[in-house]
Amino acid sequence: MAWQPADNRYDTMKYNRCGKSGLKLPAISLGLWHNFGETTPHQTKREMCRTAFDLGITHFDLANNYGPPPGSAETAFGEILRTDFAGYRDELIISSKAGYDMWPGPYGEWGSRKYLIASCDQSLKRMGLDYVDIFYSHRFDPDTPLEETMMALDQIVRQGKALYVGISSYNSKRTKEAAKILKELGTPCLIHQPSYSMLNRWVEEDGLLDTLEEEGIGSIVFSPLAQGMLTNKYLNGVPEDSRAGKHVGSFQESFLNETTLSHIRSLNEIAQNRGQTLAQMALAWVLRKGRVTSALIGASRKEQVIDCAATINNLEFTEEELTAIDQYATE
Ligand code: NDP
Description:
Elements: E1 15-17, E2 24-26, E3 28-31, H1 42-54, E4 59-61, H2 72-82, E5 93-98, H3 113-127, E6 132-137, H4 146-158, E7 162-168, H5 172-185, E8 189-193, H6 202-205, H7 208-215, E9 218-222, H8 243-246, H9 258-273, H10 278-287, E10 294-297, H11 302-309, H12 319-328
Parallel strand pairs: 3-4, 3-10, 4-5, 5-6, 6-7, 7-8, 8-9, 9-10
Antiparallel strand pairs: 1-2
NADPH dihydro-nicotinamide-adenine-dinucleotide phosphate is lined by residues 31-34, 61, 138, 168-169, 193, 222-228, 231, 233, 242-243, 279, 296-300, 304, 307-308.
């Protein structure tokens, strides 16, 4: 018999309005950057996606280059859409992006109209979709006029290939410029996807969070667990099956130096006193004060998705807790 999602899947998750739009996103979303390529068994991917949906995580974030190899995460997710998630498309928010290196030659990366439109078409084909809910410019391109990149996003929406558009990792100044162009084109910028965690606060220093509030743009923050550092997994060494242990991607074992580890241990104690895991406290922290729409996690197994989804049971912090966190969570 075909898999059925849990009947109570909308009972506990919290949904936040994305900026000034009509769209709500789950407080916790699942990203498919790691552990959705050909090196991960399909069953593990299915279990993570099923578990997420059962817990009300309606938003799955992809990009053209997620794998390895690039494109394979979209292909795997397409398979899940055709099987487990068949019949549930209207309950899902699926995003993809273009910006990083995807195919050889001058049209396979950055922000030209040529690249963005071709890449969106490829992503739709890999996932077997008519449209994605959100399509992003993955990074600002200093060599392409911003108007061209934004016009490509606008065109993608007008062609019915995406419902909304977003930008990722643009700084505050570029965000204001992009938002103005998109507004004029009639396709408002729905969302910004920056990195943000207790250990990485550039969005506060750059003024990006203030800009997003002023512009009415939502935010979904990536690597809120600092790629796994803000969890209890590295407290007693580096597990072989962890991102640090597997030596994949941009995560380096050298991030886990003694100073950082002693801070992580102290943060873990604060989390324990709150009755939360460190992962849950790190996610609650990015969501505090309601400034962030969604915390975008990655996972390598379904148990992590369950742990992260339970964050919503305790999202409040006392001033004392926030001060204690600041003492240990510095870059
Ligand atoms: P996280 O900071 O959430 O790190 C995820 C890792 O943390 C997991 O792979 C796992 O590590 C570990 N983890 C997760 N939950 C738990 C838990 N409950 N207990 C213990 N360990 C846990 O995010 P990512 O860096 O993976 O990024 C998330 C998403 O953000 C990506 O999938 C992608 O969609 C997006 N992203 C966007 C970028 C952009 O440029 N726009 C750049 C990077 C990411 P392990 O694998 O070791 O078990």
